[in-house]
Amino acid sequence: MPDIGGADLFVLEFGDILHYYTPYTATLFILAAIFTGLVIVSRPEGQIDIAFGGDAYYAKETAISEMRFRRFMAIACGLATMGAMGSGDLFNFTLFASLVGITNVGIVAAVKNRHVLDAAYEYGIVAMVATLPLFGGAALILATTGTLSIPALAAGGFAVPLIGRGLLALGVIGEGMAPFYAAKAEMFRAPGAPYVIMCSLSSLLIFLRVVEIVITI
Amino acid sequence: MIPDYSIGLLVAFAAAGLAFYALMRETDGLHRLLLTDLIEVVTLAFIALIGTDLAEALILPGLVVGVSELIALSEIYRIKEGYTLPPGPGLQIEVMESAPAILAALLVIYGIVLSGFSGGAVAGLGVIFYFLCRDHHERFELIETASGYSWVFWIVAFFVFMVFPQYWFFAVMLAGSAILVKVMAKMSLIGTMRGGPNA
Questions:
Q1: If we measure between CA atoms, which residue out of A98, A95, A105, A97 comes closest to residue A74?
Q2: Looking at beta carbons, which residues of chain B come within 8 Å of A109?
Q3: Which of A65, A90, A174, B104 would bridge B130 by S-S if both were Cys, CB 3.0 to 4.6 A apart?
Q4: Is the domain of B94 the same as that of B191?
Q5: A57 forms bridges with which residues in the sheet?
């Protein structure tokens, strides 16, 4: 099997389940850690909307309670992303990916605005439906090979079904769908800039990780 | 002869196809939320098809993810549509005054006899029923504290398993009763969800 991650830098074993970092996943982990740190220290933006055709503008305020909830969700999202980067167990990875999906919904849905909530609801349904291919893919791989350990699957000797890999990738795409809702401008028009970044970053990182997993196993 | 697993897989894929088709056709927001639950069930079927002890262990997190997403989405839907608590008292019927105490007591006692996860679920059902029928001005902090401590005991029991395996019986008892309290406390919160001030 092609090894695109590089040699193991660090392995933490809990019996069969292990966490490991290769240069590839360690880079992604550090990126997630940096952005989580940024979310912790930064303050929400004071967004200003210009009324078209005049000099007037609206200054939007972010309430303290809303800001705290979104910051908590963004930090949780960062932690879930970091977990997904280091996990060496296929099912743990799918759980971390679905956690990323839930926290992404939470980051956006804290804004009490009808349009934002509409977009968050649509995305939430996609994220929820995506657990079918996500867990289904992991379950198929477990049923056909008898193991969920990524290093064991990467070592070869198992016929990992193509449909299992496909479902896994499809599930992660569904969970990390948030950036594609950027087309729905409402979702990102919500004030509180640094937290929404976490949606895009976590989606990007879990995509990169699932590509590595699907190629390696 | 087709192996059982393949037949089950075929049924699960067919069910998934039906569920996705229904979701594609449906336009009403609430109905789509309910249909996602249909897909969650198929997800659990996929995991259950593995049919080993491991599958049993994997179903629980899968179920938790599904339920938590469902609760979060229902909350978003409720706020999105602007639904609030109906004014005035709710349903007032005689059976909701007299039955809860007896039924809840029976279920809780049977749950304690069962102990563990299933016991917690049975006892939790009794408590949910009680809170649903009676007033729900209960003490949230108390329930949360009990749940938190019992979770700690559960984890302690696992450490006993790993570090002092010779005391396994003590650890089993500790884990069994702690998980009973934890599941019961968590489930009882569901009975109090009515969009009140502290919901």
A1: A105
A2: 72, 76
A3: B104
A4: yes
A5: A50
Test A117 with B54 for CB contact under 8 angstroms: no
B→A interface, C-beta within 8 Å: 5, 9, 12, 16, 20, 23, 29, 32-33, 36, 39-40, 42-43, 46-47, 49-50, 54-55, 58, 61-62, 65-66, 68-70, 72-73, 76-77, 79-80
ipTM: 0.81
Q: B112 falls in which pLDDT band (50, 70, 90)? A: confident
Q: Please, what is the angle between helix A162-175 and helix A193-216, to 10°?
A: 180
B121 in the same domain as B179: yes
Domain count, chain A: 1
Structural domain contains residue A1: no
Given CB atoms, is A136 within the 8 Å cutoff of chain B?
A: yes
Q: What domain range includes position B18? A: 1-83
Q: What is the pLDDT of residues A188-197, one digit of tens each?
A: 566 666 788 8
Q: What percentage of chain A reaches a pLDDT higher than 90? A: 26
Q: Which residues pair with A12 in a beta bridge?
A: A19
Judge whether A206 lies within some domain: yes
Is A123 an interface residue toward B (CB < 8 Å)? no
| pLDDT tens column, B124-172 | 888 888 877 776 665 667 778 888 888 899 899 988 988 888 988 989 8
Are both B8 and B68 inside the same structural domain?
yes
Helix B29-48 with B4-25: angle, nearest 10 deg: 170
Q: Is A95 on the interface with B (CB under 8 A)?
A: yes
